[in-house]
Design brief:
Layout lengths: L11 E4 L4 E3 L6 E6 L6 H18 L3 E7 L3 H10 L5 E4 L4 H6 L2 E2 L10 E2 L2 E6 L2 E7 L9 H7 L1
Parallel strand pairs: 3-4, 4-5
Antiparallel strand pairs: 1-2, 1-5, 3-8, 6-7, 8-9
């Protein structure tokens, strides 16, 4: 699991429009929002909160990226339903999630269903300047802390 001060792990993932996104190619601060699954109540509330905070992030040259193990197609429907203006990336298989905040194995008692732990990382110049991870998928991140970092 990555912590403050560590080097960020570079990755390439497809977004909900099937366009490849590479972390190291993004400028400014990047907010990585790992969420367990599209169309779940806490994830919907969390990503809509980040959507509503996005104007503040734009003022500080920050890019928000949502990341889940969902397919790009599920993420697209989720983004459209919630009018999300930032990209949702598909970490199908959970490799990036495992490197950052970890995963929940057999989530909700479903064998072999692995999802990302709810986590937020702020990356600047490929360094982790803020990290928050919870083992409880029902917990939302401390939004005020993220705003202060930005």
């Amino acid at each position: 699991m990555l912590k403050d001060g560590m080097d960020a792990v570079d990755f390439e993932l497809y977004d909900h429009d099937l366009k490849m996104v590479r972390l190291s190619e993004l400028q400014g601060k990047v907010v990585l929002v790992f969420y367990p699954g599209a169309f779940t109540s806490v994830c919907e509330k969390e990503l809509c909160t980040f959507r509503d905070m996005l104007a503040k992030f734009n003022n500080v040259n920050a890019t928000v990226l949502g990341i889940s193990v969902d397919t790009p197609f599920s993420n697209k429907a989720f983004a459209e339903k919630n009018k999300l203006s930032f990209r949702l990336l598909s970490d199908f298989g959970g490799a990036v999630s495992k490197q950052y905040g970890g995963v929940h194995e057999n989530f909700a008692g479903v064998p072999n269903y692995t999802v990302a732990k709810r986590a937020v990382f702020v990356i600047e110049s490929m360094k982790v300047i803020y990290s928050w991870v919870t083992d409880n998928p029902g917990n939302e991140p401390p939004y005020e802390e993220v705003q202060k970092v930005l």
